[in-house]
Design goal:
6-stranded parallel beta sheet, 12% strand, 6 strands, 11 helices
């Protein structure tokens, strides 16, 4: 939610990292609010056609290019008093490709003026083509082939291609295929994996005669 996101943005602003946010929906109010908080890029889910892509872009841009309202409270403190003059040229806009309709409209979405890139959520994409939701699919798999199709369209339209991955090794593979933006795992997965590794260590190294708790 917004208060948690704001705290994360405050932490990120102490580093050289560019803050991006994946919003819950293609909803202008939500997009504008997180931009005003200091995000420099938006990943927008469920962009299925040109009209939805245009609505997303315009939510991120001040008039006359869009309809973003002016109220960059934290963004202005973070970026400087001239934020409004440069924001339209600096905000990254990634449309998520994860619906069956989007697969039929790849070029019309990717050629929408203002779209900087696309981002693939493999789980929802899997559901869209009738497969079980999953990540890191092997070559030859139906989901993998669909991902490669999206990547080729992104290359053709000269925009950034992004994808979420479960493991770092698979993310590296996607980079070699041509993806320029990769994300790996999640906070919940990292914490679960770390806890599991520690428990396995004790299970492996605690003898039956020396039980520990």
């Amino acid at each position: 939610d917004y208060p948690n996101a704001l705290q994360m943005l405050q932490a990120i602003s102490t580093t050289e990292t560019t803050p991006l946010a994946r919003v819950n929906w293609n909803e202008p109010g939500q997009i504008m609010k997180i931009l005003d908080a200091g995000c420099y890029g938006i990943i927008c889910p469920m962009v299925s056609n040109r009209n939805e892509a245009e609505k997303f872009v315009k939510s991120c841009l001040y008039p006359p290019k869009g309809f973003r309202s002016f109220g960059p409270i934290r963004a202005r403190l973070y970026a400087g008093a001239d934020y409004g003059k440069h924001a339209n040229d600096e905000i990254l806009k990634f449309a998520m490709i994860e619906t069956k309709e989007a697969l039929d409209n790849l070029d019309s979405i990717m050629t929408t003026p203002g779209i900087n890139g696309i981002y693939i959520g493999p789980a929802d994409l899997s559901l869209a083509i009738g497969e079980e939701p999953s990540f890191d699919k092997p070559e030859g798999d139906k989901v993998y082939n669909t991902i490669m199709k999206i990547l080729e369209h992104a290359k053709k339209n000269k925009i950034v291609a992004g994808i979420h991955n479960q493991k770092a090794e698979y993310a590296q593979k996607m980079i070699t295929k041509g993806f320029q933006f990769v994300t790996v795992g999640s906070d919940q997965r990292f914490m679960s994996s770390g806890a599991k590794n520690e428990l396995n260590f004790f299970k492996k190294n605690t003898s039956k005669d020396n039980k520990g708790y």
